[in-house]
Every structure is written in C-alpha cells, then in structure tokens.
Amino acid sequence: MNTVLSALRQIVRRGHWKGEGGYREVLAISVPLILSTSAWSLQMFVDRTFLSWYSPEALAASLPAGILNITTTSIFAGTAGYVSVFVSQYYGAGRFSRMGSAMWQGIYIALIGGFIHLLLIPFAPQIFALFGHEPAVQRFESEYFQMLCLGAAPHIASAAFSGYFTGIGRTWPVMWINFVATGFNLTLDYVLIFGKFGFPEMGMKGAGIATSAAAVVYCILYVGLFYIPGFAENDNALRQWRLDLELFKRLIRFGLPSGMQFFIDLAGFTGFILIVGHLGTEDLAATNVAFNVNTIAFMPMMGLGFAISILVGKYLGAEKPPLAESSSIAGFHLSFAYMSFMGLCYIALPSLFLLPFELGADPERFAPVAEKAKILLRFLALFALFDGMNIIFSSALKGAGDTRFVMFMLTTMAIFGLVLPVGLAVYYFQANIYTVWTIATVYGLVLALGFFVRFSLGHWKEMRVIEEAPPLD
C-alpha cells in the first residue's frame, strides 16, 4: 500500500521540462507518433463518413467488420510491432548490429499472418451470419472484411518497419509516411466508394480495397528509408534477413502477449459491438458514430503510448530505470490534460462532432441516430480519462517487457468486466443502450486502476526483453 501511495505522490507532482525523461523529450518523440495515429484516425473517420453518405446500412456494417479485421490482424501486428521495444532496448544498450535482425523477425510474422488471413476470406459470409444482423448489413460486412484481409500481410509488415524507426527515435519520417499513405487511402476511398473519374461504384468493397492498397504504399515507403545513407543507424538492416531462431522465439515470447493484448482488447469491444447490434440498427449506428468520434481522442493517445514504450525501453536498455519512470509520469500528465479537454468538448459541443455524419446523410433517417449518439458522447467524456490512463501505464509496462501481466489483466476484464455483463444485460434483462454504456465505463475505470497499481509496484524496472551482451574478448 505504501508503494502505491508513493507512486501516487510521484504522479501528482510536477514533472520537469528539460532533460532526459522530461516533458520536452516525451513530446519530441511522441508528437510525430501522435500525428501519425491521428492520420490513421482521420482515415477511419473519413472512411466511415463516406460510408454514412453511401447508406446507413454501410455505416452500420463498417465498425463490426472493421473491428473484426483489426482484431484478427492485431495478434500479428501487435507481435510484429513489438519490434520497437527490442530495437529501443538494443539502441539504448548501444548494440546497433542487432536492430535489423529484430525487424526481420517481425517481417516473418507478417508473412504468417497474411497467409492465415487469406484463408479467412471464403468464410466471411458464414462468420457474419452468426451475429444475426440485418441481411443488407451482413452483405456489406462480408465484402468489407474480405477486402481488408487481402491487405493483412503488408499491414502487419508495416508495423515491423515502423517499429524499427520508432525504436531508434526517428519518428518524424514515420509521421510523413503515415500522411502520404493516408492521403492515398482517402483519395482512393472517394473514387472507389462512389465511382468517380471513370471507376465503377464499389461501395463497401471499394473502401476495403482502398485500405489494403494503402498498406502496400506504407511498406514501399518504409523500405525506401533504408536507402538513405546513415538514416537507419545500421546500413546493413535490410541485409540481416536471415531467420534468427533464438531472437524469433524471444520476439514471440514477449511480443505475442502484446499482440494478444490488442486482440483481447479489440475482441472485447468487437463482442460489445456485436451484442449492441441486437438492440437494433439505430443503436448500432449510434454506437459506431460515438466510437468513430472517440478515435479523435483515442488514436493520438495511442501515439503517446508508443512513445512511452520506446522511452522506457531505451532507458532500461541503458540501465537507467529512474528515467524510464520519469518518462512514464510525464506521459500520464500529458494524457490526462488532453483527455480532460476532449471530454469537455464531447459534453459542450456534441453537434460539432456529429456534423460530418449529418452532411451527406438522409436527415430524417439520421436524426434518431444523432440524438442517441449525443448522449453516448457524455459517457465517452468519462471513459476517455480512464482510457488515457490505461494506455500510458500499460505502455510503460510493455516497454519493459511486462506483457504477460498486461495480457492477463485485459483478458480477465474483457471477459468478466465487459462482454459477459453486457451480454447478460442485453439478452436476459433487456437493458437499453445507456445501461450497456454504463457497464463499459466501469470496465474502463477498473482496468485503469489495475495498470496503475502494477506500475506503482515497480517490478517492471528489473525486466529486459533483450539478451545479455556477449563478453568482450
């Protein structure tokens, strides 16, 4: 208990601006990653806005199918993306020759994940038939999921490439690559969904094709960075392609729980969304709109979380645990300030966030969806604070290698704190949409407290994901 109280005092004290582990360093690393994840957030937001203009059924289908695809790819992308922690710890330890090999182990995971997703494509109609959504929604869900599965391999590989450059602290090029690929995706979205410039109108299928094509663009741009002399810190990185079985196993050991964390988190919310679908298309569409709006807050904090993992990894690799802790505390302060601001905006300006959805939609059909979505944004105002806390402290734990605890905590809460209570509320007690969202908010609170207590106990400071350096001759 004293340890937790001591950590709480550390949390509320003012951090320092300059120097290692201060706000300035956290911002220097995180701002490009925040902008990168914001670009991805914008991509999702505009994509679903286009689909809301296309039809309400397309909008209702976009989140279940999209989240299911992200859920299945997240196991592999989360594992491959954990390359960033390996690279950051190798970088902090000054062992630059191992960084390229770590990246390539992530590429091999991408090839495995891509193959498995190709096998899922024929089964998409049967998968979405299980959830009992309306026939038009099911058809759109299947089309979107199938097209997204085509881009699984490059999507996962881009996580490994990105992990390399974020691990060495070169986050600005990652940002620009995200901007370019996002611009490509949004342009292709508009062209293929609505059939512009001579292309056929493809609707949901076009949205999926645009996203998969953008994943290929990501990979091409990342590979190009390695051909800038000296830019990658290790000019031999692309040539270190051989399978290193010991390193591959180590990446699986620490990275797979991280990938499972994403999978479990997303699976929990996928289950949440699918259960909400039984309340009706209006409730499902309102939930989709609310979650889509929340990406404005959530995705930037994911970028901050990536930065905290990198800094924790770097300072632990350099044997400087106090600076790893200081970076985490600075990250929490920044997250709390941003999430508080966004929560106030959700409460005070809900119509502003819903405006993009209303512009191209049928006013009469969208009006009841908008009214419910405005109320759901009030729940998100509180949930966002807890979510920011989750992201920062779980990211700090992952940067050290404490991925099994993160996976265990999320598994327990996703099952017993979210999916089962929501399922019971809907199927047995005929609860409405607001009761369901109350359960989700409490889930966020308990999860935040669990990660904070684990962080405050400090066991993570002794953890490392990289092997010991061989003795010098």
TrEMBL record:
Molecular function via GO: antiporter activity; xenobiotic transmembrane transporter activity
Key word Electron transport present: no
Repressor is among the record's keywords: no
GO BP terms: monoatomic ion transport
Any one Pfam family match given in the protein's UniProt record, by short name: MatE
One Gene Ontology term, aspect cellular component: plasma membrane
UniProt xrefs under NCBIfam families: matE
Record's protein name: Multidrug-efflux transporter
Species the sequence originates in: Leptonema illini DSM 21528
